[in-house]
Design a protein that fits this description.
The protein has two helices and nine strands; from the N terminus they run βββαββαββββ. The protein has 152 residues and is of the alpha+beta class. The protein has one domain. The strands form two sheets. Strands 1, 2, 3, 4, 5, 6 and 7 form a seven-stranded antiparallel sheet that branches. The chain has a two-stranded antiparallel sheet with strand order 8-9. A hairpin with a 4-residue loop joins strand 6 and strand 7. The longest helix is centred in the middle third of the chain and has 14 residues. The protein starts with 8 loop residues before the first strand and ends with a strand.
Length: 152
């Protein structure tokens, strides 16, 4: 396994990329692959040159893992942090790595930031269409908790 460092980028196995855009990747775990070609800054430049967008989503997830060696502890923490990345997002960046060595193991703390690689500059809030009531109407609940459409 490769050394995992800050700014390392991972992609989901079946991520859609611009036509003729080739990346060298290496399998990690649970449907994620390392991008071996470069870091997050490099990937952002390459994707934007193709007219696509590399969008950082929000706060990352912070997880810890243990192992007998630093890289094994980092890999275990990274695996846990990637499990917190929503299935809607197709990329992630390792933003922070902290190590603490103990006599018989190493504790690693890793922060992972989710990203979305997509053609559109607009990030949809959900894969499901958003339904809004027509103007002058609201959705409310009755005494039993059932949703009803009411006219103002």
């Amino acid at each position: 396994m490769r050394n995992i460092a800050e700014l390392t980028v991972l992609l989901r196995e079946r991520v859609a990329l611009p036509d003729h855009f080739k990346l060298v990747t290496e399998e990690f775990r649970e449907g994620w692959n390392f991008v071996l070609s470069g870091d997050a800054h490099w990937l952002d430049k390459k994707i934007r040159r193709c007219g696509w967008h590399f969008i950082r989503i929000a706060e990352g997830s912070l997880k810890s893992g243990v192992g007998p060696l630093p890289q094994e502890a980092i890999a275990n923490a990274l695996k846990l942090a990637l499990r917190c990345v929503s299935g809607r997002f197709n990329a992630a960046e390792v933003g922070l790595i902290e190590l603490k060595a103990y006599p018989w193991f190493v504790l690693a703390t890793v922060r992972v930031y989710p990203y979305q690689i997509q053609k559109s500059a607009i990030l949809s809030m959900s894969d499901e269409p958003v339904w809004m009531p027509p103007p002058g109407r609201v959705v409310t609940t009755d005494k039993r908790g059932s949703k009803i459409l009411a006219t103002l």
